[in-house]
Structure formats: structure tokens, C-alpha cells
Amino acid sequence: MKNFEPYYAVIFTSTRTNGDNEYATMAKTMEDLAMQQPGFLGVESARNDIGITVSYWKTLDDISAWKQQTNHILAQKLGKTNWYEWYKVRICKVEREYEFFK
Fold this sequence. Notes:
By secondary structure, the protein is of the alpha+beta class. It is about 35% helix and about 35% strand. The protein has helices at about 25-35, 60-65, 70-85; strands at about 5-15, 40-45, 50-55, 85-95. A 4-stranded antiparallel sheet has the order 2-3-1-4. A hairpin with a 3-residue loop joins strand 2 (about 40-45) and strand 3.
């Protein structure tokens, strides 16, 4: 078994408003910016009726710093006014992981 360091997952679930309203551009910008932040480990995303984006971080302090990043604050405000009907954020500690692939 490989050495495993626990880390954190920020689970963002949402329903969108109608139309793009520059959402795709901002989503790509935020993903690129998050990748530059200390403690960022990765991101996974899917959207159908409900969107789910999970970002992974080394520490809770890293997550807090990302939440307070200036451009991310702007995106959060625009999300409330332009892009989301509803959203929920959950922060979880990942203590174990495993995977399967062919």
C-alpha cells in the first residue's frame, strides 16, 4: 500500500440559470487560476441537470486562501447574480482513496 496523506475536497453542486452569460469563460479562468494556488491538487467536474465540481486541496488554510482570492471573490458574486439558481458547498477530509481503471 502506498503512503497516503489525507487532503481535502471542496464539493460544489449547483443548478444553473438559462444561457451561458460568459459562464464558460469564467469557469475556465477560475480553473486555470486555482491551479496556480498553493495547495491545489486537482479538479473534477460534470454537469447535467445538476453540476458537480470537486476541487482538491492540501489543507483547510489553502481552501480558505482560495475563497478569499480577489478574482475568485468576483466570480462568486457573478455566480450569485448571473449563473446560479442554487448552489451548495461541502468541504470534506479525504482519509482514504482507491480507484479502478482499465
